[in-house]
Amino acid sequence: MMRRGSKKEQGTVLLTTLLIMTIMAAITVALMEDIQIAVKRTINVQAYAQADWQADGAEDFVRAYLTTDFAALPEAGKAALLGAREPLVLPTLEGTITVTLKDASQCFNLNALINSEGQEDTDAVQEFARIAELLGLPQNQAISLANALVDWQDADQQQSPNGAEDGTYLRKNPPYRTADTALRGPEELRAIHGMDEDLWELFKPFVCTGRTGERPPVNVNSLPVERLLILAAALGGTENAADAVPAASALLQQRPQTGYTSQEQLDNIVMGTEVEGLNTARIGIEVTSVFVEVVTELGPAERVRSYRFDGLGLDDTPQLTYRGWGRETFRPEIETQIDGESETEVDAR
Ligand SMILES: [Ca+2]
Q1: Which of the residues 3, 136, 166, 284 has an alpha carbon 20 to 30 A from that of 146?
Q2: Fold for the domain defined by 104-348
Q3: 112 closest CA partner among 210, 193, 200, 218
Q4: How far, in Å, is the centroid of ligand 1 from the Cα of 230?
């Protein structure tokens, strides 16, 4: 009897011990997992904080680079650098900082429609309308959109012809009001009356935002062929926007390998096309505004910022006029689909 009883007790003890051990093992595994996640989270938080500091440092670096090394380059050298689209890679202790520069004259500054005094700049309005036309919009729709963009930015509530002030936007669902000031970023164009998602996708690669009233002369030397319509719109002055396209094409086709060296060369080519009404005042060979994309990578962390600097090549230091966060904010390259569409449209006219 005794032996059987003690065997039973022994069995109970063994079972209890096994049960406790199983529970403890489960708790330990859960704890380990928790600790692992906590450690990883700490590493990530530290890496992102570090990447933020490096991104701030990169902004200072870019500013210094633009005022010294970049400013010292000859105009043709600047254009070649911007045209090459080769990023500048700076290794850091635990990662890299990649800086990509783009010529900001290759996109239209939406804030140029209103000058620094808050008045409508009719030349800029017409240029924007020409871009819209070259993107395939009918002329009347292009002008309406340009006027709506003026109304969005000007301080008054007087509606331009086919434009839109608060009254139009308050009737929308949800209702909103005009900004009455410059656009904070190109994406704000989506809020303008008359825009929709398809139109925005069309405009996206060709528009940007910078200093109020600033229209940097379109740099013929750094302009890639897929942005021909920016050049054609800048030449403008014709009844139909498409009439300027042959002159813009001629400028790119006859561009010397090392770039143009004087404004007269541009004037001669445009004059040679014998298209009336064209104006070369808006095109040039000097770099005055740039877009900069800075990608900071550090371990698992990545930070992307984009900047626009205006006023380069002048006596004053370059002015930071736009700061965007994330990849979306950088002026996109023209995708093959839009590229193909716009080229065929331009060619067809
Ligand atoms: Ca207004």
Answers
A1: 284
A2: Ribonucleotide Reductase Protein R1; domain 1 (1.10.40)
A3: 210
A4: 26
